[in-house]
Amino acid sequence: MKFTWRAAFILAVIAASIVYLIPTLKPGTWPHKKINLGLDLQGGMHLVLEVEVDKAVETTIERIAHELRTQMKRKRIHYVQVGRVAGNKIEVRIKGAKNIENFDKLLDTDYKDLRMVTRNSDGDALSVVLDLPDKEVLRIKKNATDQALETIRNRIDQFGVSEPDIRKQGQNRILIQLPGVKDTKRAKDLIGKTALLEFKLLDEAHNVDEALNGQVPPGDEILYEYRQDPTTQRTIKTPYLVKKRTLLTGAHLKDARVQIDSQYNEPYVSIAFDKKGGRIFARVTGENVNKRLAIVLDNRVYSAPVIQEKITGGQARITGHFDANSAHDLAIVLRAGALPAPVKVLEERTVGPSLGSDSIRQGLISMLVGGVLVVLFMAVYYQMSGVIADVALMLNILLIGSGLAGFQATLTLPGIAGIILTIGMAVDANVLIFERIREELGIGKTPRAAVDAGYDRATLTILDANVTTLIAAVVLFEFGTGPVKGFAVTLSLGVIASLFTALILTRAIFDYLLVNRKMKKLSI
After folding, report:
1. Rounded average pLDDT over 304-331
2. What is the distance between the alpha carbons of residues 92 and 106, in angstroms, rounded to a whole number?
3. Confidence of residue 332 (pLDDT cuts 50, 70, 90)
4. Of 186, 202, 183, whose CA–CA distance to 245 is shortest?
């Protein structure tokens, strides 16, 4: 009964391994996924980005300055100037004793976290320079990098890259590896887009041409719409005179999806706001009927429709002569959210599929050569027992492959090296057992007794050696980078597989030959 259950367990493991390997051997024939190949094997994209954390601090200072202006207007505190100055500081200039008194109260109640750099009084005039404490600046920079990491991860997940490697590197850098990505420019645009969505009114009271000649009215800015002419394939650049004040941002965005315009058969992006955003959008459109509202993303105008009526329900659309890919990518970055600060590419490498194919071929050749040499050595030196070990070795490789497919781990070039190392380790366990059996046979024991003693006395040594190796592999996986992780994964799977084949599979084969087949002599 004991042998029967062991045989059933072995057959179940082999069957499961074959099932998980079928998609890799014959893609599309099974619902499971095939083995993922790393960047070094299937080609792809390697990027190192730097988050411009100083911009995040600037944005925070600008926001605080805007809030301060709003609060001072609300409390009727008349000021001469409130704005950001060089060095990420806020300068406030006020006249009038009552205004100064009310301003001091406002600082004490609502802006206790701001640090006063300088304070100069001249009669009834006050000039104050404020900034953020160093601890708060460090927190903003750290949060900017962490938020950028999560935003980029969300975008890449929605982009559909299999097994991307995205991690923080140092204080403000992000390492990205995207295996299998062929359209590298599209991927880079998707990752690096800040995706700051803003709704602003057009200034239709002033002339755009005069603004282009340098006469930009206060509170306005010039932004451009870029459109490709379908006939000439040339990019048409259209200037707009836009009011700087942002009426609504993408912070209140709930969803963004690609739709097809039934009239023009062109894709557009349908956006939906949360409850607060819907209320703001309804108020903005209600107050500005017959005016043009610019939809701006990263300082680029996508469309500037005329508001025909108050829009309720929190729904809007972004049109801009999209193709299917650009509309899809825009929807992704809007859903994933805006980056808290711009990012710039410090390092970019593209691994071609042909280089990956060469790596696979050379790795497989080295694995095949190493495997054949080990198989021949075992068969010659240990005879029939060596052939049993060779069968276990073949199953060992099968188990590693099925483990990679089953856990959806990524096979890398160092991972292939881990498989080759595992081949030697798997045979090493059998060598310990066989040498122990030889010793038992040498002192006159029967083949059955020698096998039992050999396995019993070698098992503890094999477990000690493999468990310590497994601990090292787990540490490598936890603290290593991409290629090191690939090595750790295959090494871990190999250790577990070799324990199964050496202690369970080969023992079952010996028991079958000695008990069921009544073998009298052991070839070892």
Report:
1. 83
2. 13
3. confident
4. 202
Phi and psi at residue 120, in whole multiples of 5°? -120, 125
Q: How far apart are CA 489 and CA 494, in angstroms?
A: 8
In tens, the pLDDT along 163-192 reads 677 888 888 899 888 887 877 888 888 888
- The 3 state secondary structure assigned to 55-91 is HHHHHHHHHHHHHHHHHHHHCCCCEEEEEEECCCEEE
pLDDT of residue 28: 63
Residue whose tokens read 């309720």: 312
Helices 324-336 and 134-159 pack at an angle, to 10 degrees, of 140
Bridge partners of residue 318, in order along the sequence:
269
Give the pLDDT mean for 504-511.
89
User: What's the Cα-to-Cα distance from 120 to each of 108, 144, 448, rounded to whole Å?
Assistant: 18, 34, 98
- pTM higher than 0.85 for the full model? no
Cβ atoms of 323 and 279 within 8 Å: the answer is no
Token pair of 507, please? 């023992």
Q: Which CATH architecture group holds 36-41+353-516?
A: Up-down Bundle (1.20)
Say whether domain 193-349 belongs to CATH 3.40.30.10: no
Query: Among candidates 348, 38, 40, which has minimal Cα distance to 174?
Result: 348
Distance CA 483, CA 165 (A): 10
Cα 460 to the center of its chain, rounded Å: 42
What pLDDT, on the 0 to 100 scale, is given for residue 31?
A: 55
CA gap 210, 216 in Å, rounded:
7
Instruction: Give rounded-to-5 percent helix, strand, coil for the chain.
Output: 55, 25, 25
- The tokens of 235 are what? 């990019």
- The whole-angstrom separation of Cα 368 and Cα 373 is 9
pLDDT (tens digit, 9 = 90+) per residue, 397-423?
889 888 888 887 778 778 888 888 887
Contact 225, 309 (CB under 8 A): no
What one-character DSSP code corresponds to residue 175? E
- Give the pLDDT confidence score for residue 240 in this predicted structure: 93
Cα-flanking dihedrals φ and ψ of residue 299, to 5°?
60, 25
Residue type, 384: M
pLDDT at 1: 40
Domain definitions of the chain by residue range: 36-41+353-516, 54-136, 193-349
Distances (CA, A) of 511 to 317, 447, 504, 517: 72, 10, 10, 9
Over the stretch 190-215, which tens digit does the pLDDT of each residue have? 888 777 788 999 999 899 989 898 88
Distance CA 451, CA 297 (A): 74
What is the dotted CATH code of the domain comprising 54-136?
Answer: 3.30.70
Contacts (Cβ under 8 Å, ≥6 apart) of 102: 75, 76, 77
Q: Which residue has the higher pLDDT, 460 or 321?
A: 460
Is pLDDT above 50 for 223?
yes
Question: What is the CB neighbour count within 10 angstroms for residue 512?
Answer: 14
